[in-house]
Amino acid sequence: MAASPRAFVLRHTQVRPVPGLEEIRLHLADEVLPLWHAVQLESDDPDAALPYWAFAWAGGLAIGRYLGEHPEVVAGRRVYDLASGSGLCAIAAMHAGASVVTAADIDPFAAAAIELNARANGRRVAIVHRDVLDETAPEVDVVLAGDCWYEARLAQRVMPWLHNARARGIDVLVGDPGRRYLPTDELVALATYDVRTTTDLEDLDRKQGRVYALPRPVGETR
Ligand SMILES: C[S@@+](CC[C@H](N)C(=O)[O-])C[C@H]1O[C@@H](n2cnc3c(N)ncnc32)[C@H](O)[C@@H]1O
């Protein structure tokens, strides 16, 4: 990697309010393909991941809207933002009054972006930069998972991890705009939002972002 991920994020993004969540500002990009090419060159890796971290995804936007309307879900609680990307859900949780927020992502550019974005919002977010999906969920009260169902392999790994977290008493919120690999029959729909994305990423510039909960296993009473 030629320069630091932090310098790369700063060079290729602009700080802007998030559409529909204007109280949150993120380092965002407009066009995915030129940025992806720049990531491939920077990391000297033709298979480098898409720069998910430079965009607010529809699933994360829906979770952000839900937390704005229902801050009690995270207020005073320990929150874990799985597959955090830009850190959007993590920052929304801090805005809603979470006591501690941790954001996890495998992408080094995402880790840099989350740190920059938290700082741009005057927030502190702990960052875990590794693949945590073979580990048990950490000691937290709420897990947020925004837009993780866009590819089969990730979806197959995320769902058991979330079920395991739920079985251990952790509340789980999922945000998704109808991606192919989301098993909606395992979830309870809570709310739907009209969210603004971009046709550079999606087929439409507006999506229905839905927020779901993983239901409590039978017998759990909290
Ligand atoms: C579509 S983005 C969603 C980002 C954010 N949650 C949102 O809704 O805006 C998916 C994110 O999952 C991350 N990711 C993929 N595999 C992962 C894994 N095994 N562990 C943690 N994060 C992962 C990617 O790096 C990417 O940032």
Describe the fold and architecture:
The protein is an alpha/beta fold and 222 residues long. The protein contains 6 helices and 9 strands; from the N terminus they run αββααβαβαββαβββ. The protein has helices at 5-12, 32-43, 58-69, 88-95, 108-120, 152-167, and strands spanning 14-18, 21-28, 78-82, 100-104, 126-128, 142-146, 171-176, 188-196, 206-213. A 7-stranded mixed sheet has the order 5-4-3-6-7-9-8. A two-stranded antiparallel ribbon has the order 1-2. α1 (5-12) crosses α5 and α3 (58-69) packs parallel to α4. It is globular and about 50 Å long. The termini are far apart. The mean pLDDT is 94. S-adenosylmethionine binds next to α3 and α4. The site of S-adenosylmethionine (SAM) has 26 residues, from α3 and α4.
